[in-house]
Amino acid sequence: MLIKKPNRILPSEITDEAVYKERRRFLGMAALGTATLTAGGLMLPALNALAKPVERKSFPDLKKGPFGTDEELNSFEEITTYNNFYEFGFGKSDPARYAHMLTTHPWSVSIEGEAEITGRFNLEDILKPHTLEERIYRLRCVEAWSMVIPWVGFSLADLIKRFKPTSKAKFVEFTTLYNPEEMPGQKSGILEWPYVEGLRMDEAMHPLTLLAVGLYGKEMPNQNGAPLRLVVPWKYGFKSIKSVVKIRFTETQPQTTWNLSAPGEYGFYANVNPNVDHPRWSQGRERRIGDFLKRNTETFNGYADEVAHLYSGMDLKKHF
Amino acid sequence: MPPKLIKPLVFTLALAPLAWLVYAALTGHLGVNPIETVTRSLGDWALRFLLLTLAVTPLRKLTGWRWPMRFRRMLGLYAFLYTTLHLAGYIVLDQFFYWPGIWEDILKRPYITVGMVSFLMLIPLAVTSTSGMMRRLGKNWQRLHRLVYPIAIGGVLHYYMLVKADTREPLIYATILLVLLLLRLPSFQRPPRRFVKLRRNTLN
Fold first, then answer.
1. pTM over 0.90
2. Which residue of A lies nearest to B163 if distances are taken between CA atoms?
3. What class does CATH assign to A11-311?
């Protein structure tokens, strides 16, 4: 017997309230902007920022993942307008302004190196077997500011197991897309492109290490590293590489971008550590975005119970 | 424009960046890290006014105009104002009087050390900026005010040393400063007026 299901409206088809509000705000701004344009065009930057309200798919039925924090979340606006993503420019507001240029569909990820299964895979195939969950993590930037972000993603370990790395795989290297046409920051030689990051195998396999595809319950905004990014919450933010196109298993420690740029300032490990200062500024305290007073920075960004054992016996001042 | 109006106009224009910051703060246009925006912006304007002040003398020497000299002291005092506000922003907004942190910064962070020393050197210049002081100090006034050169170099260095990788903007300031300093070399000097006149006379 054929049972016909009623035509269901998918959750993703319903305009999210925030998107709706954003549209309203955009229309309001547009009207206001038109009125103001004659008076000197001061509204132009504001209009540009809102000119491309992207509708992002929401993920239905997300369950809460482990390692949560009950700290107050940073707002969606804070998380998406204050970014370091040099591929789109070197100012904090550049990614929000220019990341719409990036094409994230279709997207493929190349799995390479010391593993039994390698090759180029569509993002959909990469994600298919994984159950997405929400993970609320602290993010501590090497520049001494921090946020609390509700990511959507899955453990990197689950992905790694699928590709069966061999016994030679001691490290995992990640590479960001290289496409200066869509990532105008790559036209400058400020850093070596493409951006490369890496983890030791045990760090990559740690249950805290996340591959994220979204935040606040919806698809990742481009400026936050769409469509696929790494999140390693006990390390400085620059380790959490964005817009990943290549994952390579290696026997030797990968040469990472910031380490190459300034080896004395950015180590391979880059674990959050209030006792090891950046040569040019203190790492002892941080400003949580939205706070007036700075707070003390915690060892391993507050995840010491989970990860400190990975580094037992290591001199963290030397391996910073 | 009547020359009498130019000075109040420049005076008001120089306050515009500060007015904009106050306006942006009141209307929530400073972004999600307002403290950083304010401190950076005040630092930018401190450097800009410092370079504007240093541009006055070469401008006079190259063009022979005398009127820019009337703005030099005012521009210098604005450089002092924005530097003071920049430092106040760091102490009050960024550190909120957390003296151990401030002290450690001054001693351990070269870019803050350099910035602090430059600020300290600015103080005597601001204090001796009155006509009375100029008269009283006589020849020493000019000697003292040559401190503006290490101050400007320190200011640009302070900026250069704090950026992470993108040194382009501090290098623009450094280039402008370099040009302004080179223009002070004897080979760039215009011959004194008397000499020009003399030569003209001979030609006649």
1. no
2. A280
3. alpha beta
